[in-house]
Amino acid sequence: MDRVAAKPLKVLVVDDTATNRQILQVFLRKLGYDVVFAVDGAQAVEQFAAAQPDLVLMDVMMPVMDGFEATRRIRQLCGSHWVPIVFLSALDKEENLVAGLDAGGDDYLFKPVSFTVLDAKLRSLTRTLRMQRVLEDTRRRLQAISANMLDGLIITDETAVIQSVNPATAATFGYAPEALIGRHVSTLLPAQQSDGAAVAIPGVGRRELHGVRADGTVFPLEAGITEIDFDGARMFISLVRDISERKAAEDLLRENAASLQRYRDQQEAENVLAHDVMLRQMVREGGNDARVHQWLAPAANFSGDIVVAATSPNGCLYAMLADATGHGLSAAISALPVLSVFHGTVKRGLPLGTIVGEINRHLRATLPGGRFVAATLLCFDGRSQRAEAWVGGMPEMLHLGADGRPLRTLASNQLPLGVVEGDAEMAVTEAFHCEPGSQFVMYSDGLVEAADAAGEAFGVERLLDALAAVPAAGRLDAVRSALTRHLGGARPHDDVSMMLLDCR
After folding, report:
1. Considering 95, 271, 302, 487, which has the largest number of Cβ atoms within 10 A of its Cβ?
2. Of 460, 407, 414, 415, which Cα lies nearest the Cα of 432?
3. Are 343 and 278 in contact, with CB atoms under 8 Å apart?
4. What residues are paired with 431 via a beta bridge?
5. Pair 69, 41: CB distance under 8 Å
6. Residue 309 · residue 499 · CB < 8 Å
């Protein structure tokens, strides 16, 4: 017997003879059932209501109330819920069997009972009972799913007459559920879509329509239709959804997209203007000096790096490589004041330390908190072959010999510009002699920190090897090629900038 279940089935044994009850109890428990008892028909009705058994074994001849009457009352308690009732009786006439079945019994065994037969009957009833319980559970689940669906569910026959709807359908269209049963599905469509059968035509699949509510309001809906065969009859299941909000959202998205496109076009025009202003600031008189080799590769449309050179009235070449905090346009905006002050002070021929102080003062006055500009500044006097340098917050500046190997390095010993108020210590620079054929190299951290797909940075060693591999005139291209090989198609996450200045 199939006894695979979450818990044992419960059997109500009704018999006025204690010996019979005891025998049945032992037999049934060996078969895996739970057992409850009643000694007459009246007690059987009470026990049935209290214990809610899965199966009943009913005697016929009992005091107070016989088995036939008890069965009729139990059937009233069951309602649509089926509980098998098997009569076990010494009354072996044919009319007794008929009376038992008419009273609501499902089977009738004569006493003395053959336990082999009883076992077979129980196995058969248990299988049927379990299948019935599975079907009932499935029905309840489907009803629960249907009742809790957000989409409307409409079941129609082949003539498009509504057979069933779920609560979501009634709520969507504004009808009581029972008011739709038996009506043609065209009730739910506006006049121009009055061909209601169209909603139930097999093969239509998913489509967008318009529905009409009970108050006459027309609204957009989406319908998906499936044909099923139900006991030889063609039925159609339609899932419908009110898409008013979706349509409104789509309209809003289109309006927003058009607005964003207009904003983007305007922003692009402004970006072109800002980019042109930046270039004009960087490339001024003296910026095309043959001794200066520069490279700037922004990570975004705009760069926060500054690569600029200018010549003072007394013939000194001033160069600056700077890196403003951030990326893109915000960093470029921070860099603009630096460019303006740099060109103005160089044009006036101010000393390098004074230029540093002026840039710092201007940044302190214009930039918000947390914004600053790291910078390397160099002043080279070609007549005396003397140089003066200042490094604040940038990678070390290299002074290369003619062989491309470092003669000296100038590490950062100052804070970036715009961090603190300027003082005499900030204006301190480092001066030294420049050997003929030597070369200065300034670069941003975006160069040495540029990482390949595996996360390995380009690094200072690769930079030094690339610089030493070729003569001075080809060093910028050599570094650019070495970085491209290292990245292998990856893009740097930060602006990359570099400046080389020939000492001649």
Report:
1. 302
2. 407
3. no
4. 388
5. yes
6. yes
**Are residues 87 and 107 in contact, defined by beta-carbon separation less than 8 angstroms?**
yes
Burial class (CB in 10 A: 0-12, 13-18, 19+), 111: middle
Helix (H/G/I), strand (E/B), else coil: 16:
coil
HEC string of 370-426 equals: CCCEEEEEEEEECCCCEEEEEEECCCCEEEECCCCCEEEEECCCECCECCCCCCCCC
- Comparing 3-17, 80-94, 483-497, which segment has the lowest mean pLDDT? 3-17
The DSSP call for residue 451 is B
What's the pLDDT at 330?
Answer: 66
Using alpha carbons, select from 58, 23, 24 the residue that is nearest to residue 40: 58
Q: What is the fold, at CATH topology level, of the domain defined by 10-146?
A: Rossmann fold (3.40.50)
Q: Distance between CA atoms of 207 and 224, rounded to whole angstroms?
A: 7
Burial 363-378 (b: 16+ CB within 10 A, else e): beeebeeebbbbbbbb
Task: Encode 12-50: b = buried (16+ Cβ within 10 Å), e = exposed.
Answer: bbbbbeeebbeebbebbeebebebbbbbbbbbbbebbee
Distance CA 377, CA 416 (A): 12
The domain made up of 283-502 is a member of CATH 3.60.40.10: yes
**Cis amide linkage into residue 406, ω under 30° from 0:** no
Task: Provide the token pair at 95.
Answer: 């009319």
pLDDT at 170: 84
CATH superfamily of 149-242: PAS domain (3.30.450.20)
Rounded-to-integer distance, Cα 232 and Cα 9, Å: 36
Backbone angles phi, psi at 284, to 5 degrees: -120, -175
H or E stretch covering 317: strand 317-324
CB 297 within 8 A of CB 495: yes
d(CA 18, CA 268): 98
Which regions of the chain carry the CATH code 3.40.50.2300?
Answer: 10-146
Q: What is the pLDDT of residues 311-348, one digit of tens each?
A: 999 999 999 999 887 666 666 677 778 888 999 999 99
Nearest 5°: the CA angle 461, 467, 470 is 135
Does residue 196 have a pLDDT over 80?
A: no
Judge whether 25 and 1 are in contact, CB under 8 Å.
no
